[in-house]
């Protein structure tokens, strides 16, 4: 796995906002995800590769992601630079009604490395769209995380189980699931 000659790979960082780092967000997995995202971000910046930050803005005033609340703010260690675009969304998929696809095509970017939260929601929705839109997509398994939840039958699933199922849903169908080390090797 490697980027083809002269191909730029965009790092897409999804919903790394302060609201995702609260206890209220729930039991989560991949406690080292933020550190891995920071490593990827530092390498992308050093390599002068494109970085896109995705921010969720809720449609519900009760949500910590309602505009004007601290939950909407980016986590300080992952704050975008002034030169890095921010894509705002109010649905899980970062491509829906956002202009992200157009922004990538205008820059001839066809390879995406996707990280962030939550694996089973915004990350999975965005990866599915990226694959369906024809992007060469990589999802970084240890630079994403999700939360525990009950399945449709009511059975409690740990965050690791929910994460593993999302990875299984995506790998080989919409994206190639890789580790942080494998993603770094793309550059």
From TrEMBL:
Tell me one Pfam family matched here.
Answer: Isochorismatase
InterPro entries, sorted: Isochorismatase-like_dom (IPR000868), Isochorismatase-like_hydrls (IPR050272), Isochorismatase-like_sf (IPR036380)
- Looking at the record, the residues that make up the Isochorismatase-like domain are 9-182
Coiled-coil stretches, from where to where?
none
Query: GO MF annotations for this entry?
Result: hydrolase activity
**SUPFAM superfamilies on file:** Isochorismatase-like hydrolases
Listed A to Z, the keywords are:
Hydrolase
Which PANTHER family has this protein been placed in?
A: ISOCHORISMATASE HYDROLASE, PEROXYUREIDOACRYLATE/UREIDOACRYLATE AMIDOHYDROLASE-RELATED
Q: What is this protein called?
A: Cysteine hydrolase
